[in-house]
């Protein structure tokens, strides 16, 4: 009698790659970033009062004791200070500092303290004296560098390092606006470039801990209070779509204006300090009529949304702030457009609400609702993060109905900007520097992979004067490993090109050829230091099965050969492992 079949044993449970240690590290990172953000915001307020005589971050009108001469001198002093700091930093390192997006895309999340100093200090030296830039780039950079340095110190792998950089950036935005969900989405849309379940706990906890830390240090007041006293209706949906499309065109114009003014400043003023000083004088002139152009404009956002800035005043401030921000960045002041895009969007919405009543038959619109739609739409166009902007409005206003209408505008602005222009402000600046980066996706994994493991010796070797019959016998047994041709002195001539051999063999009359005449006409430069990304590009652009790997010190010495199928297999394996790590799947 046969024994009863046994039940199949329970399969081994897959060991998860998520780590309580990583989540705990993200929580600590969020707290540290919250402290850093609170410190930077307090410093900027203190510095503006010391340099300008008032806190530009908290005012839309100048106080009675304000002096235009003092504002001009402060901005000129900032121009000189930023120039000196830039030269000192260039002596420290020859490269430019990289931000969180570039670090995650090209260096696996590796950042240095130079990247923090090289970005944060010049930004503080700009905004603390009244330049029309935001501090969000400074706080996100500090959070990202702090995360990267802690991760490297603890020996975290590449995937964890990229995740921690995203967590630091999320914590910074969350702390700056007291909006944890917006901070999380900022990390997913810009810094990481994707969302996976594995990243939710570290990113979310870092953002929440940063906000709680800010509450403990500065109270629960948000940078601006945006109460909506109106209910969204069906007629607001086409209005949101129209504002979103208009915001896309406006956002593209702002990004192009920065580049145009940058080129204009370089052509007219050869010195860096002179460019910034001229921009400082321009900001002073604009501040005479529109003081809200100074600083990041947080205070003006609230007044624009609440209707204190409306009509012709909103239109004038919209033009002034656009020129001020573009001139500040184009002349060389350091900072970002995150907060500026929010103010510009709110002003654009107020302008739309002012113009709409002139069209007969159009239902009445809410200026406040138009302002928040514009705020999110312009932010989605310039920053390139529509979900971040939608939830920033939702967390700031607490109005779900309004968030739905806002979402229509932000999505429309993001779509049209992508179709017409193809870049956010960050990726547009990357393109200006020659970097093909579309976001924080890890595009450097192959570039960081050596090819030493797939270099093999050639299968067959023959002399340069070998006849066609000898070549045919050699390639018949060499396969894809190739046949190397050497001179009598041992120097390498090249690899036999099977296509040439096939063409010669197909001739009716046998031609008197030797092996040296049957090698590839061109040999791509491949050495042991060539990375896998470069090698894959060579195989894609050159239809050959094998390439020769040469000694980097002796161009006539063959190290070995690499087969195309080995290169593609290694690339596929590395990308598959990257995807598994991102998904949190055990190896």
If helices are DSSP runs of H or I spanning 4 or more residues, what is the number of helices?
Answer: 21
Model regions low in confidence, pLDDT < 50 over at least 5 residues: 13-17
Termini separation comes to: 43 Å
Instruction: Report on the biggest sheet.
Output: 3 strands, mixed
Radius of gyration: 30 Å
Number of strands: 5
Q: Give the rounded overall mean pLDDT.
A: 87
* Bulk shape: elongated
Strand order of the largest sheet: 1-2-3
> Structural class of the secondary structure composition?
mainly alpha
Helix content: 55-70%
β-strand amount: under 5%
Order of helices and strands: HHHHHHHHHHHHHHHHHEHEEHHEEH
Key terms:
21 helices; three-stranded mixed β-sheet; mainly alpha
What does this structure look like?
There is one protein chain. With 587 residues, the chain is mainly α. 61% of the residues lie in helices and 4% in strands. It contains 21 helices and 5 strands. The protein has helices spanning 20-51, 68-92, 100-106, 113-127, 136-153, 158-177, 180-192, 197-218, 236-268, 272-289, 298-306, 311-331, 338-355, 367-383, 386-397, 400-420, 425-432, 468-478, 498-505, 532-541, 564-583, and strands at residues 460-463, 483-486, 492-495, 546-550, 558-563. Helix 15 (386-397) runs antiparallel to helix 16 (400-420). The radius of gyration is 30 Å and the shape is elongated.
């Amino acid at each position: 009698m046969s024994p009863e079949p046994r039940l199949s044993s329970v399969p081994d449970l897959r060991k998860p790659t998520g780590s309580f240690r990583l989540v705990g590290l993200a929580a600590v990172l969020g707290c540290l970033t919250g402290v850093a953000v609170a410190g930077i915001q307090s410093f900027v307020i203190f510095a503006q009062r010391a340099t300008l005589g008032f806190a530009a971050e908290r005012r839309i009108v100048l106080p009675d004791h304000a002096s235009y001469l003092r504002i001009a001198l402060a901005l000129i002093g900032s121009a000189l200070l930023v120039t000196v700091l830039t030269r000192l930093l260039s002596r420290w390192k020859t490269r430019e500092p990289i931000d969180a997006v570039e670090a995650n895309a090209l260096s696996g999340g590796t950042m240095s303290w130079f990247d923090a100093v090289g970005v944060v200090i010049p930004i503080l030296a700009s905004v603390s004296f009244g330049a029309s830039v935001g501090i969000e780039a400074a706080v996100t950079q500090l959070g990202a560098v702090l995360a990267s340095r802690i991760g490297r110190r603890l020996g975290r792998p590449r995937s964890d390092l990229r995740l921690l950089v995203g967590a630091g950036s999320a914590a910074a935005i969350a702390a700056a606006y007291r909006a944890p969900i917006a901070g999380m989405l900022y990390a997913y849309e810009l810094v990481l470039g994707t969302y996976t379940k594995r990243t939710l706990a570290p990113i979310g906890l870092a953002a929440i801990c940063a906000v709680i830390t800010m509450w403990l240090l500065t109270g629960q007041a948000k940078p601006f209070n945006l109460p909506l006293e109106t209910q969204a209706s069906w007629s607001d949906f086409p209005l949101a779509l129209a504002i979103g499309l208009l915001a896309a065109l406006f956002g593209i114009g702002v990004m192009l204006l920065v580049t145009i003014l940058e080129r204009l400043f370089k052509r007219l003023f050869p010195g860096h300090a002179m460019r910034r000083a001229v921009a400082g004088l321009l900001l002073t002139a604009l501040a005479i009529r529109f003081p809200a152009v100074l600083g990041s404009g947080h205070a003006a956002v609230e007044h624009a949304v609440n209707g204190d800035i409306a009509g012709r005043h909103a239109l004038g401030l919209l033009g002034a702030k656009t020129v001020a921000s573009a001139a500040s960045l184009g002349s060389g002041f350091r900072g970002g457009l995150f907060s500026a895009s929010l103010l510009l969007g709110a002003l654009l919405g107020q302008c739309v609400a002012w113009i709409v009543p002139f069209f007969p038959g159009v239902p009445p619109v809410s200026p406040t609702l138009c302002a928040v739609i514009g705020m999110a739409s312009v932010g989605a166009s310039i920053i390139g993060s529509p979900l971040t902007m939608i939830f920033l409005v939702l967390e700031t206003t607490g109005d779900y109905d309004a968030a739905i209408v806002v979402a229509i505008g932000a999505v429309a602005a993001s779509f049209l900007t992508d179709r017409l222009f193809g870049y956010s402000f960050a990726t547009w600046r990357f393109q200006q520097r020659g970097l093909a980066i579309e976001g924080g996706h890890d595009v450097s994994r192959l570039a960081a992979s050596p090819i030493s493991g797939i270099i093999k010796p050639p299968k067959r070797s023959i002399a340069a004067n070998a006849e066609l019959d000898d070549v045919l016998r050699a390639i018949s047994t060499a396969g894809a490993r190739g046949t190397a041709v050497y001179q009598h002195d041992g120097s390498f001539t090249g690899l036999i090109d099977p296509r040439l051999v096939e063409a010669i063999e197909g001739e009716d009359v046998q031609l008197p050829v030797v092996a040296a005449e049957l090698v590839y006409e061109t040999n791509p430069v491949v050495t042991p230091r060539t990375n896998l990304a470069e090698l894959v590009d060579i195989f894609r652009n050159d239809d050959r099965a094998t390439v020769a790997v040469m000694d980097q010190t002796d161009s006539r010495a063959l190290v070995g050969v690499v087969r195309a199928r080995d290169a593609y297999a290694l690339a596929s394996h590395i990308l598959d492992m990257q995807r598994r790590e991102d998904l949190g799947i055990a190896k």
